[in-house]
Amino acid sequence: MRSRKKTIPWVVIFLLVGGAWECAGMKPEDSIGDFFTGEVLRYEVGFWLIDPLGGGVADFRNLGNGRYMVYHVGKAEGLVGWLTGYRREIYRSTMTTLNNGKRLIPLRFEEYSVIGEWYRKKTTTYDYAARKVITEGEKEGKPLGREEIDIPPGALYDDPVTAFYNLRFGVYGKVEPGREFLLNTLPSKRPEIIRIRVAPREETERRREAEKIKTDKDLLIQILIDREMWGRKKGELEIWFNRGLVPVSGVVKDIPFFGNVRGRRTWHGHSPVPLPEEVPNADGKKSGEPGK
């Protein structure tokens, strides 16, 4: 049950269902980190007749000294959990800010796949002083390799989590019908772009008419990821929002063996206490150390 070939894209489901977008109440003096600190969201996902097959939770933390972190864990549950060894997908994105606190940039992005006490980890570190992105792999405490890629002068890269909060804060521009945004992701042998497309009004109305439940489906956002993901050459997902930019529902399309994986937010709020972590140590045990 330890194959990594067919995995449920938990981090994209997290981006898909999101939290309440309350940027209409944002004050000009707000920093992006202070604005999101303490935000917690929970979601569930399903496909075919299995609904839900799992769920997840994420929170945004202030680590102090101008650093922030988003911790996220997605879990398979029920029958799917039993069949996959109760697989967990864990992500920790450590960030700082630019532009007087108005834009997040990543410092370190950690990705874990955990099955029982077995785990695999990938860490991407952004060394801006040396202008390098360093990627390192690990399996059960044993190194799997290291790669260094140069950061071109003037380039900024976002991991998926950082991009999610930047978009919500309006870093890339106002989210409105007909707009498109192109984001640079991790540098590699060829450019990898995330294309965010806000459907024009006419297309939104036509697509809404085809929906069984039309309530609050006012804005349709399509995200196209130009890289191989989940057994497809390119990743594609869609999210419906209401007029207040609160996510209503979404779908990651055409994943092999799963089909369309749908997500919906189940709770959103704020908490002054960080969530307990489930990150494994080299011996496979949970670290339980927030903000490490």
Please supply descriptive tags for the structure shown above:
14-stranded antiparallel beta sheet, 45% strand, 14 strands, 292 residues
Order of helices and strands: HHEEEHEEEEEHEEHEEEE
Major beta sheet, strand line-up:
8-7-6-5-4-3-2-1-14-13-12-11-10-9
- Uncertain runs: 1-8, 18-25
**Radius of gyration based on Cα positions:** 19 Å
**Number of structural domains:** 1
Main sheet attributes: strand count, strand direction, barrel closure: 14 strands, antiparallel
What general form does the structure show? Answer: globular
Structural class by sheet pairing and helices:
mainly beta
Q: Strand fraction band?
A: 35-45%
Number of strands: 14
Helix content bin: 10-25%
Mean pLDDT score: 79
How far is the N terminus from the C terminus? 29 Å
Number of helices: 5
Structure description:
The chain has a 14-stranded antiparallel beta sheet with strand order 8-7-6-5-4-3-2-1-14-13-12-11-10-9. The protein is built from 5 helices and 14 strands. It has 292 residues and is mainly beta. The radius of gyration is 19 Å and the shape is globular. Strand 4 and strand 5 (103-115) form a beta hairpin.
Question: Strands, helices and their partners?
Answer:
Layout: H1 10-17, H2 32-36, E1 39-47, E2 50-64, E3 67-76, H3 78-83, E4 88-98, E5 103-115, E6 118-127, E7 132-139, E8 142-150, H4 160-169, E9 180-184, E10 193-198, H5 201-209, E11 219-225, E12 235-241, E13 247-255, E14 259-270
Antiparallel strand pairs: 1-2, 1-14, 2-3, 3-4, 4-5, 5-6, 6-7, 7-8, 9-10, 10-11, 11-12, 12-13, 13-14
